[in-house]
C-alpha cells in the first residue's frame, strides 16, 4: 500500500509539468519560479537542519568502538575502528562517508535448524555505492550546463564517463547505466526482501521513484527524445547567473518534467530521510575519538546530582563495621551538597 | 518457570518472513516470560523518583498519570533538545535494513519489532506524528502515528527487550545506536513512574548499601574472608584481608563488582583479584561503601547512573589514594570509560595511573585516572612480572566471550586475549562473526537478568550460546572466560539451557589458577576444586 501511494504521488508530480507546460504553456513558471523557489528551500532547509542538529549538544563521547582501543604502548590500536585523535576520526569518517565502510561489514543471518549461520552480504553495499557515486558524478557532470566555458575538470570527467564510444552517438555514460542498476536494485530489494519491505514507509519508496524518474527522463532526453541542448544551456546558464531566460526554441516537454522532478527533489531533500547526506557527519558514534579516559568531554548541561555521602552511610553501618573489624573513618564529615534532578516531584532542573 | 525444550523454543523463529499485518496495526501483546515485573512504589519513592502506585504490566489498564501524554511529549522534546545523538538518530535512518538481523533478540524471537530499525521506529513514528508537519500531513505514509496508551505498553515491552549492546550500531551506515534510543526511552518511562523490579532494586541497594545485591559491609568482608580461607585451604597461602578494606593512604583504590563476591562463579574472579594483589604485595585497598563498579542506574537513567557512581570518586578522595582500578565488568566499563570523565571530571585530585610494579604510566587514562585490571595485568605479564604456569589450566579448553560493552563501548580486545594466551594452553576462538566488535550479548544485560523474563533471556542469548555450542562440539571447549560480571551471572543459566558442559568464569580466576607462588604446597585441584590435569608439585 505504501508503494502504491508513493507511486501515485510520483505520478501526480509527473503530470504537473506535463499539464503545466504541455497544455497550459507555463514555461516561465517551470523554468524560473519553481526551480528558484525549490533551490532556495533546499539551501535554507539544509542550513536549518544543520543548525538544528548543531544546536543540540552532544552530551557524551560515545564512539562505537569496532576495534582495539589505544592503551598499552605495545598493543597496536585500530586507528580506523577505534580512532584516538582527530586525524584518525577524519580517516574513519572519510571511509564511512565515501566508501560506506560500516555497510561493507554487513552480514546475513540464517537459521538452519538450530544453527545460526552468518554469511557475507555485500549486495546492499554494492547497490548503495553504485547509486551514490553515480549520482555524485552525474551531478558534477551537469555543471557543464551551468558554466561557460566549461572547466576542464568537468570536461575530463565527462570524457571519462563516456569513454566507451562504441555504443553509438551520443556515447553512453557509464554512470547512467550504473545508477539505473543501483536504483533498480535498491527498489527491488525494498519490494522483495520481506524484512526490508516490512519496515518501508511510503517515504522510503518515494525518493526512489523520484530519483528514478529524474534519471529516466534524463536518459530519455539524451538518447531518445532528443532535446535542443543549446536552448537548455541558454536556460541553465541564465538560471546560474540569475538572469533567467525562457528560451524561444522549443525544448520538449520531457525537459520540463526532468527539471520539475529535480526541483521537487531539492525541496523534499532537507525535510526527509535524504538529509542523511549531511546528518552522517554529525553521528556521535562515528565522529568522536575513543580517547575518553585521556581527554575529558564536556557536557554543557552536566549538573550536580543527589547522592549519599560516606558519612551518612557509615552512620548506618557503624556498629556492624565495628563488629566486623572494618576500620571506621572518624574524619568523615557529613556535608551538604547542592543537587538537581529532572525527575518526579523534586523536579527542579529545567533543561 | 518452565521453558519448552531448547529445540522447540526457537522453532517459531522465522528470520525471512514477516507478519501479514503492518507493524503499526499490531497491538502490543505482552507475553509472559518476556517482560520484567514492576517495582514496589516505595523503592522509587525512596530514590526520589515518580511512581504509578502498585500495578503490573499484565494489568489491562495501566495507571498512567493524568498528564501522561503531555509529559511524554515534553520529555521527548527535551531529549531531542539536549541530546544531539538522539535527535540525529531519530532523523536520519533510511531504513536500509542492514541492522535487521544483527540484534540477538531478533535472531532469537523473529519478532520484527526486535529489528533495531523497528525498535527505533516505535519512537520515531511518534516524533513524526506529534511534532513534524510532514508526519501530521501524511501520517502512516510518512511512517507517523499519534501517541496512545498502547504505545506506552509497546515501548515498555520492546525497550526492555534491548540490552543496549550496540551491535546494530556497528553495522549501521550512519552509526545509529539503538542503545542511545533505549536509554532515552527508559528515561521517559521512568518519568512516568515505570520502573522495573530488577532494574530499580539494585539501584536502591547500590545507593543506600553500596552495591547492587545489597551486601552490607560486614557481609562483604565475610564473603572475602571465606574466599581467602578457601584459598588457604587449597594452596596453604594466607592472604591478609585487612589492608584491602577501608585503609587510608593506599596507592590504589580497587572497585570490585558485587556479582564477584556474591555468588558462583563470580567469586572465583574476586578471589583471582585478591590472589594477584597478594602475589604482588600491591598497595591497594577497597572502600566498603564503593563496593560496586557496575551501575544499574545506567539502565534506568543517566542521572541515576551519575548518582550511583558519585561515591567512587568521593571514596577515592576520602581514602587518599593516587588512582583507581576497576574489576572485570561490562557495562561498568562503558560507564567508566565513556561517561565518568564527563560526569565527574576534571579529576584533579588523583594522579595519572602508574603501575608500581612495572613503572608503566597509563597515558590513555591520564585524564580520568581509572584503569581496567585487565590492562594492569596485561602490562604485568608483558614485563614478565608474573610467574605463570599455563599448564595449571590444562583441564580447561577455554574460549573467550567479548562482552558487548567493553567491546563496542571501549575496545578492549587484545589485552584479555594476551592474558589468556599466557595463562592457559588451550584457547579457542568462537566463529569470527560472533566475536570482537561483532560479539553477541548474553541476552541478559542492561537489567534483564531476572527470573520472570527467562524466556526472552534464553531467546536473546541464543546466538551467543549457539556459537559456544559450535566450539564446544568442535573443539571440546568446556570453559568460557569473560570480563563481565553480568555474563558470569547470566551465562551459566544460558549454557545450562543451550549447551550444558561449558562453565563460565572471569579472566582473573584463570590468572590466579596459573600463578606460581613461592612456598606453595602441592595440590591437585584448581581454585574451584576441579581436578587438575597435572597436579602442582609444591615445596612440602
Short description:
The complex is a heterodimer of chains A (351) and B (540). With 351 residues, chain A is mostly helical.
Percentage of residues in helical conformation of chain A: 40-55%
Low-confidence stretches of chain A: none
The gross shape of chain A turns out to be: elongated
Q: Gap between N and C termini of chain B, in Å?
A: 50 Å
Please, what is the CATH homologous superfamily of the largest domain in chain A?
Transmembrane di-heme cytochromes, Chain C
Overall pLDDT score of chain A? 92
Structural class of chain A: mainly alpha
Q: Strands, helices and their partners?
A:
The complex is a heterodimer of chains A (351) and B (540).
Chain A (H helix, E strand, L loop, with lengths): L1 H22 L3 H29 L30 H14 L1 H4 L2 E6 L2 E6 L2 H19 L10 H10 L12 H19 L1 H6 L2 H22 L5 H12 L12 H16 L7 H4 L30 H15 L27
Antiparallel strand pairs in A: 1-2
Helix pairs in contact in A: 1-9, 1-11, 2-11, 5-7, 7-9, 9-11
Chain B lengths: L5 H4 L31 H6 L21 H15 L1 H8 L12 H6 L6 H16 L1 H6 L10 H11 L7 H5 L6 H15 L4 H12 L8 H19 L16 E4 L10 H15 L3 E2 L16 H17 L4 E4 L3 H9 L1 H5 L25 E3 H10 L15 E4 L2 H5 L5 H10 L3 E2 L25 H7 L1 H14 L3 E4 L2 H14 L4 E4 H8 L8 E3 L5 E6 L4
Parallel strand pairs in B: 1-2, 1-3, 3-4, 5-6, 5-7, 7-8
Antiparallel strand pairs in B: 9-10
Helix pairs in contact in B: 3-4, 3-10, 6-10, 8-10, 12-13, 13-23, 17-19, 19-23, 21-22
